[in-house]
């Protein structure tokens, strides 16, 4: 009878240790889950910012192309209007 009670205490002790270990693993896992959610939120924010910056950069690129075209047109017009003056002076 004493041996059975001793084995029962040992089994209960092992179960308690196992439950404690399971609780520790669950707590650690929950911390990892929370950190993962936090990092996903940060990544989402950065992705949104990157997309906005890419759109703004594309708008700037198109605006620069438009300005380059206008400069080219104005330079050609200036060159064309300067030619008759040069010919008259020669």
From TrEMBL:
How is this protein positioned relative to the membrane? Multi-pass membrane protein
Superkingdom assignment: Eukaryota
Q: Does the keyword Coiled coil apply?
A: yes
Look up keyword Transcription and say if it applies. no
Where found, per UniProt? Answer: Membrane
Please list the coiled coil stretches. 22-70
Q: Which GO terms describe its cellular component?
A: late endosome; lysosomal membrane
- Which of UniProt's keywords are assigned here? Coiled coil, Membrane, Transmembrane, Transmembrane helix
PANTHER family of this UniProt entry? Answer: TRANSMEMBRANE PROTEIN 192 (PTHR31592)
| Annotated family | Belongs to the TMEM192 family.
Q: What is this protein called?
A: Uncharacterized protein
